[in-house]
From TrEMBL:
It holds the Pfam family SLT. SUPFAM superfamilies: Lysozyme-like. This is Lytic murein transglycosylase. Residues 97-205 form the Transglycosylase SLT domain. PANTHER family: MEMBRANE-BOUND LYTIC MUREIN TRANSGLYCOSYLASE C, SOLUBLE LYTIC MUREIN TRANSGLYCOSYLASE-RELATED. Belongs to the transglycosylase Slt family.
Length: 237
């Protein structure tokens, strides 16, 4: 009898808790992972052609055309590149890279190449002249850029936040791209050495190459690694 009464009691408690859960959703919270947006293919291809010029034909960037899983591959690459402390943020970082790249019509793999060149995916990296975070932005440049795009500036420590850093870094790259009329060697170099120094070199008929070469090498290497692990697309009739 005691066992029977115990079972009845447990059933009543279970029923009461179930009713409470369904009648008051504040009792529990359900969290679902944020959707990982698709890469804006038209912008990716257009920017890849701009960056690679004649070398786009036959490149891994071209081979990735129509690959719907590119967003997941970007997330996977970010996750494998981050230190243990930040791996849990890989999805959020991937979402920011993809969203901001679409906003400024950049190839998200190019943004990853800049990050790889600047900080090797270390959100806490500090440069020799005070650059901070994934995209190694100087606080004064970041503050100016934040004001320019209407983003609230919360001080230089906020640059260690990957989302904040990427938003400001991509906005600055877009600004430079417009300043140098979509000439990759110039705007990529300007990201590192400043637009004034690039203009001085150009005035002397010198093409800034060192930093641009590093970014482009990382760009091609990243595409090679991503393409190598990409799901094989099966042709359909």
């Amino acid at each position: 009898m005691k066992t029977k009464h115990l079972k009845i009691g447990l059933a009543l408690i279970t029923a009461t808790l179930t009713m409470a859960l369904f009648n008051n959703f504040n009792f529990v919270s359900f969290k679902f992972p944020a959707v990982l947006e698709s890469v804006l293919e038209s912008a990716r291809v257009s920017h890849a052609k701009e960056l690679l010029g004649k070398k786009y034909s036959g490149s891994d960037a071209e081979k990735m055309g129509g690959q719907k899983a590119l967003n997941l591959m970007i997330q996977k690459k970010i996750q494998s590149s981050l230190g243990p402390k930040y791996k849990a943020q890989a999805r959020a970082i991937a979402r920011t890279v993809i969203a901001e790249s679409a906003k400024y019509e950049l190839d998200p793999v190019f943004v990853l190449a800049v990050i790889a060149t600047e900080s090797k995916f270390n959100p806490e990296a500090i440069g020799s002249v005070g650059e901070i975070g994934l995209m190694q932005i100087r606080p004064e440049t970041a503050k100016w850029m934040a004001q320019k795009i209407g983003m609230k500036w919360k001080g230089k420590e906020s640059l260690k936040n990957p989302t904040v850093n990427i938003k400001l870094g991509t906005a600055y790259m877009d600004y430079l791209r417009n300043k140098f009329t979509s000439k990759p060697a110039r705007y990529v170099s300007a990201y590192n050495m400043g637009p004034l120094n690039v203009r001085r070199l150009v005035a002397k008929n010198v093409v800034p190459a060192e930093y641009n070469s590093k970014v482009m090498k990382n760009y091609k290497d990243l595409y090679a690694k991503i393409a190598d692990k990409a799901p094989r697309m099966v042709a359909t009739n």
